[in-house]
């Protein structure tokens, strides 16, 4: 097959919030910047974000970035890297105001300031009371954000390659990254994108689960590409289940609904969160609420004929508030649950939502891997931002609205680092290895020449069901062990998938087969890492690691306060330390308040 070559200063894979924010930084600095995306930029999953973006602007309640940092560290169950968390919380106000100046249509308070709503786990004065920190544009914050960023990129002459699917990372014999191979989806043509810097912003992989709030394109391609190129994946055992997916459909009902006063009720009409989290109640962090809901259901207090969901009630809110602040949610409830939330509560269940782990990076957006004694050595030419990256600001559990913030802060930071690295002469266009496109061509060739094998959809479904059953909200030692075996069996089947349609033009069957090859890497990383982590922390809760006086909530800081690194080769695991300064699990938050900057 003929392989064309394009050359750029920087190539960015992904046009969601993270990719567009990075691209803007580079294009405005005059660098030749290409953005590859499987879908039109404004259809990236960021468009679905509803609730808001966190920043301690303090427009309606007092706020401080120290409090935001403390909440994020605590929310991460101490697994977050504190240098990255500090960087994100300190930068939040700057990037949000910048976005406002780019034209983002935020809702307004009566004084004309950016409207902010409360969100789970975000508090005032180190956990004392909920704070209003989530900057929102009704319940369509991601939509507004993505459009503002896209328009700004058009103005900056970013070059978009729309409906191009990146296939593999190109590394040379030094391990440096020189770009990617990609396929034009319309024609099936393969090309090499050769660049000084490559930034991955490919988003999440929620589609490895059966029930997910994620878009169909969220297949973890960046993680698959990184894993195949020998880069480890960090903390993949931690998946966030959002408490309120519409029962049966998975579509998300934003936490902003509870921020506006929504209440979860069991079949007795009881506001059960009062028992599980007396202070924050329905706005406790997502892992706490999800587990409380599953417990209610497991103990027979679920609703409906099968007692398999709970109810989210906003019937006590004035209809005007629902129409003004939550119009999209009302539409979703009517369309997907058949109820008008003005009059009736919405049936909801916990649904997979967000991956806390990803490609290991530092707070500058550089991809870092262990080398010798140093656990974090940058890979020359390789950067990552957004949900595909693990900075790690979310640790074992992400607070709502911190992801949109992560996209802005680390999208911008990765762009700034690339500019610095190019201007300082650290990055240059290295010659491509002769076999640069061989792996991608071999993968495509296998699909094109196979005369028999299993349909992609069958293997995909078994993978998703395995993940849902064996690595769900609650985890069981025996199910995890069996899950590892099962997922390795699914991997064998992925190697023997078969597509009937071999045509070149807009062949979605081929694309789905290639996506499955990425998803299986994420699934293996998740299952193997989860089986190995013998404690409960954040979103990873094991039945054999319960709450005891020695290990409150099942968390074992002595042995497990460390990041997992999973390598594709041999399913090998190693671990690296958490950046634990200035806070320590035993420290009072006052240590942060007293710190001078
Ligand atoms: C329903 C929903 C609601 C949410 N609400 C909120 C919220 O209110 N607040 C909050 O903070 N977070 C929220 N989140 C989380 C947050 O929206 C996501 O984590 C975030 O938008 C991810 O952005 P991203 O830029 O990393 O990736 P995405 O927006 O997912 O974009 C990924 C991009 O990568 C491209 N891509 C992927 N693979 C390839 C490939 N092989 N080749 C080329 N291109 C590729 C895609 O085309 C796309 O452009 C929500 C998530 C969901 C699912």
TrEMBL record:
> Which compartment or compartments is the protein found in?
Cell inner membrane
**GO molecular function terms noted in the UniProt entry:** electron transfer activity; flavin adenine dinucleotide binding; succinate dehydrogenase (quinone) activity
Which cofactor is recorded for it?
FAD
Q: Name one GO cellular component term.
A: plasma membrane
So where does FAD get bound? 14-19, 37-52, 221, 387, 403-404
A Pfam family found in this protein is FAD_binding_2
Any idea which positions bind substrate? 242, 254, 353, 398
Instruction: Give the cofactor binding note.
Output: Flavinylated by SdhE, about 5% flavinylation occurs in the absence of SdhE.
Provide the membrane topology annotation: Peripheral membrane protein
Q: Which residues carry this modification: Tele-8alpha-FAD histidine?
A: 45
Ranges for domain Fumarate reductase/succinate dehydrogenase flavoprotein-like C-terminal come to 462-595
Q: Is Transmembrane helix set as a keyword in this record?
A: no
Coarse class of the protein's main subcellular location: membrane
- Catalysed reaction per UniProt? a quinone + succinate = fumarate + a quinol
Q: Which residues form the active site?
A: 286 (proton acceptor)
Q: In which pathway does it act?
A: Carbohydrate metabolism; tricarboxylic acid cycle; fumarate from succinate (bacterial route): step 1/1
* Coiled coil regions, renumbered to chain: none
What are the entry keywords? Answer: Cell inner membrane, Cell membrane, Electron transport, FAD, Flavoprotein, Membrane, Oxidoreductase, Transport, Tricarboxylic acid cycle
Question: What Enzyme Commission number does this protein have?
Answer: 1.3.5.1
- Report the sequence similarity comment from the record: Belongs to the FAD-dependent oxidoreductase 2 family. FRD/SDH subfamily.
Q: What is this protein called?
A: Succinate dehydrogenase flavoprotein subunit
Q: Which organism is it from?
A: Hydrogenophilus thermoluteolus (Pseudomonas hydrogenothermophila)
